[in-house]
Amino acid sequence: MRPEKIREDFPLFETNPSLSYLDNAATSQKPEQVIEEITNFYEESNSNTGRGLYKLANKATKEYEGSRSTVADFINADKEEIVFVRNTTEAENLLSSCLDFEGDIVLTEMAHHSEQLPWRHKAEQEGKNIEYLETSEGKISIEDAESKIGEDTGLVAVSHISNVFGALNPVEELIEIAHENGALVVLDCAQSAPHKRLDVKSLDADFITFSGHKMLGPTGIGVLYGKKHLLDDMPPYQVGGGMVKSVEEDSVRFSDTPHKFEAGTPNIVGAVGLKAAIHYLENLGMDEVEEHTREMSSKIHKGLESIDGVDVISHERSTLVSFTASGAHPHDIAEILNQKSVAVRAGNHCAQPQHLDLDISGSVRASPYIYNTEEDVQKLVDGVKEAVKMFNV
Amino acid sequence: MYRDEILDLYKNPRNTGEIEDAELKLQGENPSCGDQLTLYVNRDDKITDIKHDSDACAICTASTSILTEEVKGLPVREVEELDKNWMLEKLGIDVSPMRLKCALLGLETLQKGLEE
């Protein structure tokens, strides 16, 4: 992997040449191949999908549905199992609104608010109990899962990779435990899809959710994968145009999966852009992508650990590095780094309960991706050193 | 942003600690970024005493320190009138939009408490 060369594909680094962008767990930058694909669509193929009978409309429909096939191949699913949504949050909300099941809900302490609040809302409305799986050394505790997932469990919603710790959760084991107890599993892959080859058939999760914008795609496009028979059994999320077979005065017949979940004109360019992003990643090779992210994280981890007063919360070789520093508040560290053109995230990263549990008010998170170089790592480490020195009380 | 005065107020915050049996004990927080503070206030028609206990960033700690120094002895009615611009002027630095809530946490906590 040659990150310096990859960087040249990203126009944002041309306009911000000194930027060390290390906030990829929040969103990624976009290569010109994705931006061009979006422009090309508007310049050459723009029309609505699934409706018009003219040449251009066929072209647009083909592009949109072709993107669905690309996403399906990317995660080893069937085309009918891919629903386009806005983002991970919408996918989780769609599920919590439409999925009907008996039994209680199991979430995790480390859950991002987007995979936690929709299910808490459902539990409140339907009188379901919620249990939270504990975090043990940055991962979901299997021991705790074995004791909390039981016959009364109807659904287990977990992250593939935590956005606080960056560690890969033991999801295969979790899914097995859930299925043994007859519970459905929703896997939040927002942090794993950008870095890891996903195979829904071998994972055997019932649903997975992820966002396009964290994996080089545009904002406003995300994916809900569901096993076909489960999606077939669910009612539509929203109703309107583009999701019906026929509408008569006293009856409506909805389209089949997945179109019944895509009411209204969809985000066509979003899907087209996501297709280009997946092609870009596949050209690099997902294994190489993952290896590079982990290597960069590992170097950041080592560099930070050598600074007195810095406490790294995440594991070595995670996809990201989160840390605190004694005497220096996360926001102040991020501000000093900002002054050196290093972009990181500071706060509780939409996982407030997990931070309360760790008894810290927040953390700093550096999350690398394919275009990050050793120079970025060095700038970050030097900046943190300076911040610790400046704020040390 | 981090002028020497701000760093000094962060490392040596003014009027810190607890007032025993304070008339008002006010808690403020910015949950998303992790700033937390408690204000202890005694007042009649003026602020007669005020202390703070802050676990917060440099901007929040410094501005709360300045706040306690400025409002002690001030009529409550005047404190209620203070606004964002007053606080930023006293702080004397440019604050980015994301850090505005850090700079204003102390003032907003105090005004909300006085109102109630």
What does this structure look like?
- The complex is a heterodimer of chains A (393) and B (116).
- With 393 residues, chain A is an alpha/beta fold.
- Helices cover 43% and strands 17% of the residues of chain A.
- Chain A folds into two domains: 33-282, Aspartate Aminotransferase, domain 2 (3-Layer(aba) Sandwich), CATH 3.40.640; 285-387, Aspartate Aminotransferase, domain 1, CATH 3.90.1150.
- Chain A has helices at 3-7, 11-15, 32-45, 55-74, 88-98, 113-126, 142-148, 171-180, 200-203, 228-233, 268-284, 286-305, 330-339, 352-358, 374-391; strands at 20-21, 82-85, 104-108, 130-133, 135-136, 139-140, 153-159, 184-188, 207-211, 222-226, 244-248, 251-254, 310-312, 321-325, 342-343, 345-347, 363-366.
- The longest helix of chain A is centred in the N-terminal third of the chain and has 20 residues, at 55-74.
- The radius of gyration of chain A is 22 Å and the shape is globular.
- Chain B has one domain (4-115): Sufe protein. Chain: A.
- Chain B starts with a helix and ends with a helix.
- Chain B has helices spanning 4-11, 58-71, 76-81, 84-91, 100-115; strands spanning 24-30, 35-43, 47-55.
- By secondary structure, chain B is of the alpha+beta class.
- Chain B has a three-stranded antiparallel beta sheet with strand order 1-2-3, covered by helices on one side.
- The chains are: A alpha/beta (393), B alpha+beta (116).
- Chain A binds chain B through residues 329-332, 335-336, 339, 346-348, 352, 355, 360-362, 390-391, 393, and chain B through 1-2, 7, 10-11, 31-36, 55-59, 99, 102.
What is the topological layout?
The complex is a heterodimer of chains A (393) and B (116).
Chain A: H1 3-7, H2 11-15, E1 20-21, H3 32-45, H4 55-74, E2 82-85, H5 88-98, E3 104-108, H6 113-126, E4 130-133, E5 135-136, E6 139-140, H7 142-148, E7 153-159, H8 171-180, E8 184-188, H9 200-203, E9 207-211, E10 222-226, H10 228-233, E11 244-248, E12 251-254, H11 268-284, H12 286-305, E13 310-312, E14 321-325, H13 330-339, E15 342-343, E16 345-347, H14 352-358, E17 363-366, H15 374-391
Helix pairs in contact in A: 3-11, 4-11, 5-6, 12-15, 13-15
Chain B: H1 4-11, E1 24-30, E2 35-43, E3 47-55, H2 58-71, H3 76-81, H4 84-91, H5 100-115
Antiparallel strand pairs in B: 1-2, 2-3
Helix pairs in contact in B: 1-2, 2-4, 2-5
